[in-house]
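Changelog note: in this version the structure field was regenerated for every chain. One regenerated record is shown below for reference.
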Amino acid sequence: MYAQLRETAAELAGILWREHTVYRERGGGVVIRGEHVRRWISLAPTGGKDQALLRAGRILDGGTTAPARTEVVVDLTAPVAELATVCRRMLAEVAAAADPGPGSGPSRSGRPGKAPKSGKAPKARKPPRVRSRHTGAGSWVVLVLVGIAVAAWVYSVFGSPGY
C-alpha cells in the first residue's frame, strides 16, 4: 500500500507544485509539502482497498504543520488528474480559511469585530480582582474535623491512660 501511496503522491506533487518535498509519515502515509505556497497534502491508508484519506493543511512559521483543515477519502484507481483536481479544491479551502476576507481585519478600536464608538470617550476599566490564596473558612472547618477524627482514632487505638 505504501508503494502505491508513494507513487501517487509523487505524480500529484509534480502536477500541483514545481517545488515540493515528498516524505513518509509515521503512520505509513505520504506527505507532500509545498514550502513556497506554505501548504501540505497527505495521503494515508484507510483500510479499504485502493482508497486513501487525503488531508490538506497549512505550514506555519518555522516550518511546523498546522492540523488538517479538510479531509476526504479518495479512490487511488482514479486518474491522477482527477486527484489533482480534488487536491486543488482542498488547497483552495485551506487558503480561504487561512486568509481572512476584506473587512475582517482589526477595526480602528483595535478590537476585531467591534466597531468604534462614536463621540464617546472610552470607559475607564476597573483593574481585575486579585484573588488571594489564603485558606478560607470552609477549609478551616474541614481541617478541624479531620483533626478531631485523627484524635478519636488515636484514642481508640491506644486507649485511655492506664489508671
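Spot check on this record: The first helix runs from residue 2 to 16. The radius of gyration is 31 Å.
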